[in-house]
Amino acid sequence: MKIGLYGGSFDPIHHGHLLLAREAREQLGLDRVLFIPAALSPHKLTTVPTPGEVRREMLEAALAGEPGFAIEDCDLRRNGPSFAIDTMRDLRARWPKAELFYLIGHDNVAKLDTWQSCAELRAAVQFVVLGRGEHDAPHDFPTIVRRIDISATEIRERVARGRSIRYLVPETVRAIIERRKLYQGPNRSTQNI
User: Contact, 16 vs 148, CB < 8 A?
Assistant: First the structure.
């Protein structure tokens, strides 16, 4: 079995995430892609993310009816920062014979060596870089490239300014953001990364 591990804050999940995950699944022949929302990103310890259960709700809405995409909430169930090595160990115990492909954004390549137990992680998974375009940092990992200029930061900022996010996120996710009044108020758009 070939499994893609796609970790992140997903605050909120958007079409850029979904398009890159679909492209990775098709190009790599993955049996499934697991979206793994972080409880707290180790590289964003000074920010306060939207509560995990709300981010999970948005993921469920975005992934509904998508065969081959699933949510893995092991990081949300652990206390403290969500380290990729802990996630990998947990999933390796469940699927000892699976090929694991760890999908990372191009912005993570330069700091990959700072990840906890990076050498063990590199030995256990195949890193695959999800590139957004021509300004990606050079590296030796396989790359999935789609020119997509959508970011969660931009979406939060647009909501905070009262601007539309239609077409940036699935309609079901937009409805949750509106119903729960997420990312509104002074400085709310920059509290979450």
Answer: yes
Q: Tens of pLDDT along 64-111?
A: 999 999 999 999 999 889 999 999 999 999 999 999 999 998 888 989
Cβ burial, residue 11 (10 Å; 0-12/13-18/19+): buried
Q: What is the CATH number of the domain that holds 175?
A: 3.40.50.620
> Model's pTM, two decimal places?
0.91
User: Strands (DSSP E) along 27-141, which ranges?
Assistant: 32-37, 69-71, 99-105, 126-131
Number of domains in the chain: 1
Return phi, psi of residue 121, to 5°: -65, -45
List all residues 6 or more positions away from 7 whose beta carbon is below 8 Å from its beta carbon.
36, 37, 38, 75, 82, 84, 87, 102, 103
Two structure tokens written together for 89: 């160990």
Residue position matching structure tokens 């699927």: 95
For residue 144, give its domain range: 2-191
